[in-house]
Write a structure and sequence with these properties.
Layout: H1 17-37, H2 40-51, E1 81-84, H3 95-106, E2 110-112, H4 121-131, E3 135-142, E4 148-156, E5 162-170, H5 172-198, H6 218-221
Parallel strand pairs: 1-2, 1-3
Antiparallel strand pairs: 3-4, 4-5
Helix pairs in contact: 3-5
């Protein structure tokens, strides 16, 4: 028999069961010790992100208090009373009209934003006489996006006709930002003149239409 065949073959049989289970138990003890040694803040860091999601921010709506008519302060003397009608084509919260109303109030004018326009010059004159309005402001927004044009008209309370106009161009935020230093230079002088003219004594053109309640119709008399 040669020397190579005389060597013993290695023992490839698995280790006895007690040895294997002992190694597994030792690994479990080591893992448990590591977890026990972990600090409570470290353990909490794993759980908090899943239990407490970040709050969702709610959208903030624009302030609409400018639409309310402001009562005159005792002892204060307004430079005139103006009505600003809704602007056709303005956004849902009317940012352009809001900027005009706030600007006119800052100039010392008594501004009402709760009225609706009428149909004819005679009706505007009647509204001016009845409500002591010196002028009316009308507006329209044309176009979309950055290519918008805001056309703002001034109507006299004395004549009921338009006497001045101005145009603002750009996107809505740009138009709102230019109201303060463009609208007043363009319309302010004519507006104050119209208010001073309306403040003078004047006569009503015609008696207001009256309907007497309880009047019997001819058809009911038969």
């Amino acid at each position: 028999m040669s020397r190579l065949t005389s060597l013993k073959k290695p023992d490839l049989r698995p280790a006895p069961a007690p040895v294997r289970w002992g190694a597994i138990a030792l690994a479990g003890v080591i893992a448990w010790s590591a977890m026990a040694a972990m600090s409570r803040p470290a353990q909490a860091a794993w759980v908090v992100p899943f239990l407490k999601p970040a709050p969702v921010a709610k959208p903030v709506l624009p302030d609409q208090s400018w639409m309310d008519d402001m009562p005159e302060k005792p002892g204060a003397h307004a430079k005139g009373k103006i009505a600003v009608f809704a602007f056709k084509g303005d956004d849902v919260y009317e940012p352009v009209r809001a900027a005009v109303v706030k600007m006119l109030r800052a100039k010392g004018l008594n501004v009402t934003a709760s009225l609706r326009p009428v149909d004819s010059a005679a009706q505007f004159r009647e509204m001016s006489y009845t409500l002591n309005l010196g002028a009316f402001v009308e507006g329209e927004i044309i176009g979309e996006g950055p290519h918008q044009t805001a056309v703002i008209h001034l109507r006299s309370g004395m004549t009921g006709k338009r006497i001045a106009s101005t145009r603002l161009q750009g996107a809505t935020p740009q138009i709102v930002g230019t109201v303060g230093h463009k609208v007043w230079p363009a319309l302010g002088g004519a507006m104050m003149h119209s208010c001073s003219s309306a403040a003078r004594p004047r006569q009503r053109e015609r008696e207001p239409l009256r309907i007497e309640a309880g009047t019997t119709l001819d058809s009911d008399r038969s």
